[in-house]
Amino acid sequence: MTATQTTSLDAQTNAAPLARRLSIFHDLKTVARRACRGVFREPEFFIPALVVPVFFFVVNIGALQDFAEQSGVVVDFKAFQLPVSIIFAVTGVSRASALVTDIQGGYFDRLLLTPIRRPALLLGLMAADLMAVMMLTVPVLLLGLAVGVSFTTGILGMIAFLFYGALWGLAFAGFPYAIALKTGNPAAVNSSFILFFPFAFLTTSFLPKEALTGWLATIATYNPVTYVLDGLRSLITDGWEWATLGKGLIATLILASISFSMASAAMRGRVSQK
Prior knowledge:
Layout: H1 3-41, H2 47-70, H3 77-90, H4 96-105, H5 107-112, H6 118-146, H7 154-172, H8 174-183, H9 186-190, H10 196-201, H11 214-222, H12 224-238, H13 242-272
């Protein structure tokens, strides 16, 4: 083999991985573009996701603020509740219902017949989810600012607050996708939010961890939402508490690894049926 042939072979060998990487990015962009357009075409996608956190924020402040602050349990109950509203806003937000529509209509099966990379099918949808949860966190944050919540970390803390909450929403999104791919049933996907109830209420949603007792304190210790709420609250009242923020990120990553593994397994199961 001549030196020229060797050089040509090396170039082809090096180009193959690059081509594969470019291909998956192209596939990801294609799926994400379609999913993002769907988000803007469906305003009903946002309304329920905003009504619930705003309702809980307003009701909890009206009903519990005086008691919580006068009893000394919480110094600033509005700041204490704003992270809860963010978690409610972003949890369960996904394009899983649209995925079910694609499955039932046969579009998803047609995609599986194309050379599109399988990871891009989920990652593209999740890119749209990230955009959606970021759009949902902004109105909730503005509501908090309007009622007097202030951030000791300033504008950078507000930006970190939005991304921190959005990451939790994205981490949870794997569960509805797993259900959608496994069942292809819209009712099952819509009921996936029920999975969040234990996370939402068996934690520090209404009282700080120090005020919890008995079995509730034990469950809250192992509930990842506890650490995410701690991280969000630290950005408002405590400053850049890196240890607290790190624990929340670790809890989010653990949940993401579980939910994404379930979604990937469900994807492999559906592909194997074809």
